[in-house]
Amino acid sequence: MIVATVLLFTTVDPWMPDTGLFMGGFDLDVYRDGARHAMAGLPLYTEPVIHGLLYTYTPFSTVLFVPLGLLPSGTDKYIWMGFNVALLAAIIALCWRMLHYRITGRVVAVSVLLASGCMFLEPVRTTLFFGQINLVLMALALWDASRGEQSRLKGVGVGIAAGIKLTPAYFVLYYLALRQWRAAAVAVATIAATVGVSWAVLPEDSWQYWSETFFDSTRIADESHAANQSLRGVLARSIGGPAPTWLWLVLVAVVVSVSMWVAARLHRNGETLLSITVAGLTSSVVSPFSWSHHWVWFVPLFVYLAHRALTNSWWWLAMVALFAAAGSWSYRWPDGRVVVGLYLFRPVWVPWDVLVNLYIVAYVAILSGTAVIAFRRSPTTSKTSPSSVPSLPVAA
How much is the pTM? Predict the structure, then answer.
């Protein structure tokens, strides 16, 4: 973990313009400026906000982003980054809890150490660099999944996350696949509530978003962009142009069907964390446009692999492979550009078609591996009572 932290600050100078970890905060600026547009009565979706960027989040998100404007100017991005690092450690501790470990001082300490290592994962590093909210959305979904099936609050976390950004609405489908009807209904009701609240506060912007902006995918970027690590991005890069909608929908249906089958089986086997992780990774795959930083779901997968490695040393190889593929490795192109992430490297040892679609390739391997876990372990062998699981060993 110490090595990972050192790598984080040495692969790219943290103060390097446009690339260094402490020289970003662009998306945080957009969140804050979007909220300021809304408070000033300025159009939110028909004209650019700060940095000439278009606002793409829901009207409800601007309501929640208003407090960001209260952060001290000049230090706001560091405060937000610090919050996200602390949240990352809390997410990892929650993952241990979902694996039935008792939350002790040792588990908290290990979570902090793992957080320092996970900061080197490119999706996490890029989330911190841009001041993104991916960790917040993932925390809401994980908190939701960790609740008992009889909890009346189960579904609220997913609903709020989907109210901020549409992609987490995928977890409603996940709850339906698990036959958790009440959780799915609560999530849908919560989403509807977020729409209602934002419509009451921002009626004109809400009408603009839900009648037009919602359907305009060109506001994000060209779907063939290398950073679009989604199935549609793979198709666009392979074809050399816009992916046919019918082909994308057919492949999405196949991916969703297979992944839900695996996720449902994992859940029945008591593998709650791995089940929701498969769903989270799949949501990035089937989304029309998934920036690389949407793949923060590598974090709970990393924790799960560490959990398995405590009893079988072969699992360390899987951790190393994930760390190698998704690490914040840097490369300087001949024109002087510095990029972060293997999927942006020059294809020297690995074919370009594989390299530029690296996260999708990794997803295929992950889904295959989780399918083996799901169908080789019986539902009675993997369920463990929280009281029977020891606290995290020092070896973690």
Answer: 0.93
